[in-house]
Write a structure and sequence with these properties.
The chain has about 90 residues and is mostly helical. It is about 70% helix and about 0% strand. The chain contains four helices and no strands. It is a multi-pass membrane protein.
Amino acid sequence: LLEYHLLTLVCHILILLLAVLFLWSNAHTFIHKSPPRIPEFHLPEEPFLQVVSALRIEINGGFAVLHSIGSGRDLTKFLVVCNLIIC
């Protein structure tokens, strides 16, 4: 349990919750309980577009740095990256 990653645990809990809700929704006539009322929600598109746009700028900047390192233009950055990879 100590080597169980948090993301894996959260995913397994969500899968279990989804399975329980699915079974409860389909078996509500047999267990004589009302089906679960799951609220609908919609996420607005604009904040996601802003986040993706900001990430695109940062990723393109990272690619530009990698391009300058890979093309041999910046020896100091190349040595820093090699040092980070080795350590």
